[in-house]
């Protein structure tokens, strides 16, 4: 058997405060194959964002191991790209300058990075905005610029932490479709964290449902759309597929959303 | 200047289209009337301001001359002007101004450089910050002017002036800058960390550039504070400077001299403030391109 791209091996995380210990995550074990797109859903506070921070090497697990390509994660690596909820573009830099932030911090060749950034921005439809400031861009454009900034380090694993939730509904649907397409075309492995069930289903090959705190894996749902043949539909088309409502119903029930 | 909203409220019908962006409509009669009313109000405000100054000067001139008040205590504008001209002719005034100005600029720069260095150090080492925090709070709250006699004994006349001015401005610089650093956008810092940024890189790429406005606010606060420090230092002991002129003038009961020095001080602080305002405009303008 080949090494999975990403592997969580009995991962647990506890937070320590003067008041005591909090178990945030417990017994997390799953693997993600190369090129696979996995969504993680769960209610707020269930530790789903923490999973991504573990993968990005921002925090260490208190129990178990997180592996990428079979190697334990010990710190941030250029191999892993992180897209956050806020685009966090630096308002004092131009779009192109924002885009080369990663290579700049990594100490890569500046000229090469600049060429790569411009190529990415042009491909994402921002060719006319290289020297614009972030304030001149719309929300959707800013999120595409943020994707270009993430891609500029050429990661092969992408972590998406609710990257569309700050956008208005219409922009959100089309940007999710667009970015989902880009990630699939480039064959990246991706993990999306969201509380939006339709988004999770529409974008992913598998949906992982986390339980309430401490976050445990409650169930894993493979998502397939046979009605669209062999090719997986884009996230926009997936929402119209005949299989979609039943996936939604299953995940919804799994989440046991109580109105409190 | 800021009266836009208050006037706009009255003829609401014509003001509304001007607020919604890009809704260009042919200018109506009411809109012209509104513009005219706005211009009139602006003019009235400026006129009132000038009138206030003129009235103040007239009363100040007339009251002592008519012996409603003792001219020995208040002096009057024409006498102040004469004292000013006389001191300029004697060449001493220029000297006093230069002495004070040099002291202010030097201590201002010292406080800025030292304060920035300490704020950076505190941000770089949270543990150091936790150790020093209570001391900084006490030193900031302590009235630095109480230290003047000590500085005088330790450093002499010249040195104590700089010491007071730096002491007055330094701690507020540290606290303002450090607070600004602490309030840097956590999302931007997290982003930099996902790229593997070290603390030093986070400082250089996120914290410092996002705190330009904090820096300018600190500059403004410091300009005033170093001036206060210098004048207090000059009060204690000095051979020249505007603070010296004020003390000397009051001792020989030359109120015209005292008042002239105070007016010049006012103009000096205005000039320093305008200079910083200009610098702020130059620094932030490119960033605000396109709003």
TrEMBL record, chain A:
Family matches, as InterPro entries: AAA+_ATPase (IPR003593), ABC_transporter-like_ATP-bd (IPR003439), ABC_transporter-like_CS (IPR017871), ABC_transporter_ATP-bind (IPR050166), P-loop_NTPase (IPR027417)
Top-level taxon: Bacteria
GO-annotated molecular function: ATP binding
Keyword annotations of the record: ATP-binding, Nucleotide-binding, Transport
Domain ABC transporter: 6-237
Family label: Belongs to the ABC transporter superfamily.
Protein name: ABC transporter ATP-binding protein
Native organism taxonomy: Bacteria, Pseudomonadati, Pseudomonadota, Alphaproteobacteria, Hyphomicrobiales
Automatic annotation (TrEMBL), chain B:
Protein name (database record): ABC transporter permease
Keyword list, A-Z: Cell membrane, Membrane, Transmembrane, Transmembrane helix, Transport
Membrane-topology annotation of the record: Multi-pass membrane protein
Record bears the keyword Membrane: yes
Keyword Transport: yes
Segments traversing the membrane: 45-63, 97-123, 135-155, 161-181, 225-246, 258-276
Compartments, record wording: Cell membrane
Classification via InterPro entries: MetI-like, MetI-like_sf
Gene3D superfamilies with a match to the protein in the record: MetI-like
Family matches, as SUPFAM superfamilies: MetI-like
CDD domains: TM_PBP2
Residue intervals of the ABC transmembrane type-1 domain: 97-276
Record family assignment: Belongs to the binding-protein-dependent transport system permease family.
């Amino acid at each position: 058997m080949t090494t999975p791209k990403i592997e969580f091996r009995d991962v647990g995380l506890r937070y320590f405060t003067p008041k005591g210990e909090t178990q945030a995550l417990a017994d997390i074990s799953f693997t993600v194959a190369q090129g696979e797109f996995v969504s993680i859903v769960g209610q707020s506070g269930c530790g789903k964002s923490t999973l991504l921070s573990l993968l990005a090497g921002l925090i260490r697990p208190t129990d178990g191991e997180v592996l990428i390509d079979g190697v334990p994660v010990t710190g941030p690596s250029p191999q892993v790209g992180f897209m956050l909820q806020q685009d966090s573009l630096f308002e004092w830099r131009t779009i192109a300058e924002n885009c080369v932030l990663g290579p700049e911090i990594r100490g890569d060749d500046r000229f090469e990075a600049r060429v790569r950034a411009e190529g990415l921005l042009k491909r994402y439809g921002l060719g006319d905005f290289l020297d614009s400031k972030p304030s001149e861009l719309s929300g959707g454009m800013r999120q595409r610029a943020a994707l270009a900034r993430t891609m500029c380090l050429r990661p092969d694993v992408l972590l998406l932490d609710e990257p569309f939730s700050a956008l208005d509904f219409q922009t959100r649907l089309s940007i999710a479709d667009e970015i989902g397409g880009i990630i699939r075309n480039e064959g990246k492995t991706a993990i999306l964290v969201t509380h939006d069930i339709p988004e999770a289903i529409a974008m992913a090959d598998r949906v992982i449902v986390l339980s309430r705190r401490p976050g445990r894996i409650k169930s894993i749902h493979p998502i397939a759309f046979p009605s669209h043949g062999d090719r997986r539909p884009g996230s926009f088309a997936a929402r119209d597929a005949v299989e979609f409502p039943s996936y939604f119903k299953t995940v919804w029930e799994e989440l046991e959303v109580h109105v409190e | 200047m800021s009266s836009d909203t208050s006037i706009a409220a009255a003829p609401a019908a014509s003001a509304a289209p001007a607020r919604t962006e890009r809704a260009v409509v042919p200018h109506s009669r009411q809109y012209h009337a509104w513009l005219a009313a706005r211009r009139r109000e602006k003019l009235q405000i400026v006129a009132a301001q000038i009138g206030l100054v003129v009235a103040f000067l007239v009363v100040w001139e007339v009251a002592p001359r008519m012996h409603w008040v003792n001219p020995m205590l208040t002096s009057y504008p024409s006498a102040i002007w004469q004292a000013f001209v006389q001191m300029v002719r004697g060449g001493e005034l220029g000297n006093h101004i230069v002495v004070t100005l040099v002291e202010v600029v030097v201590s201002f720069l010292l406080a800025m450089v030292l304060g920035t260095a300490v704020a950076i150090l505190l941000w770089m080492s949270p543990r150091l910050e936790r150790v020093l925090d209570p001391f900084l709070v006490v030193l900031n709250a302590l009235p630095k002017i109480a230290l003047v006699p000590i500085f005088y004994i330790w450093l002499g006349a010249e040195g104590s002036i700089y010491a007071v001015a730096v002491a007055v401005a330094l701690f507020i610089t540290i606290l303002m800058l450090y607070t600004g650093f602490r309030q840097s956008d956590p999302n931007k810092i997290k982003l930099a960390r996902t790229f593997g940024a070290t603390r030093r890189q986070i400082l250089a790429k996120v914290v410092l550039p996002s705190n330009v406005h904090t820096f300018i606010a600190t500059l403004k606060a410091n300009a005033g504070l170093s001036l206060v420090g210098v004048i207090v230092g000059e009060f204690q002991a000095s051979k020249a400077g505007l603070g010296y002129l004020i003390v000397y003038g009051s001792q020989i009961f030359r109120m015209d001299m005292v008042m002239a020095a105070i007016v010049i001080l006012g103009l000096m602080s205005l000039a320093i403030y305008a200079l910083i305002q200009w610098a702020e405009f130059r620094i932030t303008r490119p960033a605000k391109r396109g709003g």
